[in-house]
Amino acid sequence: MSDVPSVDPLRIGIAGIGNISGQYLATLPRLAGVRVSAVADIDPARAAAVAGPGIRALTPAELLAADDVDLVLNLTVPAAHAEVALAAVAAGKHVYNEKPLALSTVDGRQILEAADAAGVRVGCAPDTVLGTGTQTARRRLDGGGIGVPVAATAFMVSPGPELWHPNPAFFYGTAAGPCWTWARTT
Asked: Which domain holds residue 89?
């Protein structure tokens, strides 16, 4: 008999079955401690197409009301992120948004304040900044390991989403990325 206590899995409901959902649906079942219990989309056929054993297809409202959903994985289009996240928080659900958290700093703060008041947690992609490489670089910077930085640069290493996304127009809209969001709200 193990000394490790049994922990119930975190039950995830996915809101938005678009292009990125396939990556989550392929990865989440391989992770210990989590289970996808429901999927929802404004197009019911999309949700039905990925539902299967143990995963129910629901309407967005049913997903928010579901007793077997602890966390809403918000994969909707960026313009809907704040609305869906706030509705999930109001329903007592934790939220993990695909990027960006919201289209403005004001909306992002509203999500975080609502979550704090409701006692639920909010996370947002890309969580890669919590990975070993970025955290090691941060520790070196914070510790003065390279001196005082005076400049930084970044490069996009892809020709753009047109190569892989079937409907990339929203990537070029308001607040379609972290730099654009910052520039529009500062």
From this structure: 10-127
